[in-house]
Specification:
The chain has four helices and 33 strands. It has 503 residues and is mainly beta. Strands 14, 15, 16, 22, 23, 26, 28, 29, 31, 32 and 33 form an eleven-stranded mixed sheet that branches. The longest helix is centred in the middle third of the chain and has 18 residues, at 325-342.
Length: 503
């Protein structure tokens, strides 16, 4: 075993074309003995990162030819800190001999803070990492100091190389991009889910079973900063369940779901809003056939709030998991963007809801987005989401029908425009089921213009309201639970995208 100590104070700061990064001294290993035997060599690296250190610290590792497997384990200290001060949290990942260039070909995996060790070899890898040959050259262990205590963050890495003949690479198999479907219909989905291929605790099989139990027709794989799960969903798809592939890109200035990208697509996350790099990767998502969906844009966790703007977005997650105050803020901010679109400043941005489920007791499919699509296929579901022909429901029990009808029988549904003259009488109608004792609120560009009596205990009811396009540029429906907080509205049970009124 060899040991090395890295002192960040004696190393040069390198700006890698995005956020600042630091590359430490190289760890080297002896070449294989030439006999093809499975021998091992280990090196230990220790160092300390100060508060305010770069977002990413790279430890180069010279990997000689003849290596079958690389394994890394790590520990770091967690000192006590004053109340209100962040403690230590250190993420980890791996790049191979192709380098650490932003958006390059070197990515071999990321586990964030979910694991204390990982391995990579040709025929297998730890969840979160990509199997493949261990090529000779300079590999890099990527350390991501998410938060650093005032005392600094002391870490220890143990790197083990196993020499010998490589295993046989595994050819990835991906789920089909179409399921049987019901033709043009309303399909239920949850597009923000985590398995054990990032920081979740469920297997793909467990998630698929929960998705079917929740009445879902489609889901989207969205692991943090890795596409390693893509090759592990094929045997869970079926005629009744479309499984799309994507990623949750977890930057230091917000998270975004890449929804329904081509199999094997990796999207880099190593940048901040100030680096002006997000547009490049949003374009990559679109070129790979995916949608750009900022996730929980007003979440309060460190680095979770969305700060890149919405110019490249196709939809926005306005409801994430159990309904909380930050969802209420996201809903209000989204509604303000609808007003901007009415002025003609920009296209409107549909809202969607997902569970962001990681582990028990997180409920898959709560909430879920219900989308009107021509078929149960990746392309059709994405088209429906992009057009905003969708509503959000807390469970499979909720069904909505929301329409606006003009004086001559013209009709528009969710996400559509009723193109009638400004003074045309319009009847807005909501038919709801699965919502016992919930209250309907009809919201326009002016605000809430109708609040209904609670729906009956059966959960089914109809609410009608009459208006004109000159009075309401759009109308959308919120269905909320009862509340004991006086004027404060209850938690959402369902939410529609708007219907626009007028020409």
């Amino acid at each position: 075993m060899c040991e090395d100590t890295h002192d960040i104070g004696r190393r040069a700061l390198i700006v890698t074309g995005a956020t600042a990064a630091l590359t430490l001294g190289t760890v080297s290993f002896a070449a294989a003995d030439g006999q093809g035997r499975q021998t091992q060599r280990t090196a230990t690296v220790r160092g300390t990162l100060p508060p305010g250190c770069p977002d990413f610290v790279y430890v180069p590792v010279e990997v000689p030819a003849g290596v079958r497997e690389i394994k890394v384990s790590y520990t770091y200290d967690r000192p006590s800190v004053p109340v209100g001060t962040t403690g230590n949290a250190l993420d980890i990942g791996l790049f191979d001999q192709h380098g650490t260039e932003l958006g390059g070909k070197g990515f071999r995996g990321w586990s964030g803070g979910a694991r204390t060790e990982f391995f990579v070899r040709a025929d297998d890898a730890t969840p979160g990492y990509i199997p493949g040959p261990v090529g000779a050259g300079t590999w890099h262990i990527a350390l991501g100091p998410y938060t650093v205590a005032p005392q600094g963050l002391s870490y220890e890495l143990t790197i083990t190389l196993t020499y010998g003949e490589p295993g046989t690479p595994v050819r990835p198999v991906y789920p089909p991009q179409r399921a049987e479907g019901r033709g043009r219909d309303w399909y239920r989905g949850d597009c923000h889910l985590h398995s054990w291929y990032s920081d979740g605790r469920r297997t793909p099989a467990e998630i698929a079973a929960l998705a079917r139990a929740a009445g879902l027709d489609f889901i989207n794989s969205s692991e943090h900063n890795t596409h390693s799960a893509h090759a592990h969903w094929a045997d869970q798809a079926g005629d009744d369940l479309l499984i799309m592939l994507g990623e949750e890109i977890t930057t230091r200035n917000g998270h975004v779901v890449a929804l329904g990208t081509d199999p094997g697509t990796f999207v880099d996350w190593r940048y901040r809003a100030r680096d002006n790099r997000f547009g490049r990767f949003a374009q990559q998502i679109h070129k790979a056939g995916g949608l750009v969906v900022p996730a929980h844009p007003h979440a309060t966790c460190v680095g979770c709030a969305w700060k890149f703007g919405f110019g490249e977005a196709d939809a926005v997650e306005v409801w994430n998991g159990p309904y909380t105050p930050d969802d209420e803020v996201a809903l209000a901010a989204w509604d303000a963007t609808l007003v901007a679109s009415v002025r003609g400043d920009r296209r409107w941005l549909p809202g969607m809801g997902n569970s962001d489920a990681h582990r028990d007791p997180d409920a898959v499919g709560s909430p879920q987005t219900v989308v009107l699509a021509d078929d149960l296929s990746r392309e059709a579901i994405q088209a429906g989401l992009r057009a905003g022909r969708s509503y959000i429901a807390e469970s499979k029990n909720v069904t909505l029908r929301f329409t606006a009808t003009g004086g001559r029988g013209e009709q528009a549904g969710i996400g559509e425009r009723l193109a009638v003259a400004a003074d045309t009488p319009v009847t807005v109608r909501l038919e709801a089921s699965g919502l016992p004792r919930c209250t309907v609120r009809l919201v326009t560009d002016e605000g809430v213009l109708l609040t209904s009596d609670p729906l009956p205990v059966t959960g089914s009811g109809t609410v009608e309201w009459r208006t004109t396009p000159s009075y309401a540029a759009y109308v959308r429906a919120e269905i909320r639970h009862e509340t004991a907080a006086g004027p404060v509205p209850g938690a959402l049970a369902a939410l529609t995208n708007p219907i626009f009124l007028g020409r």
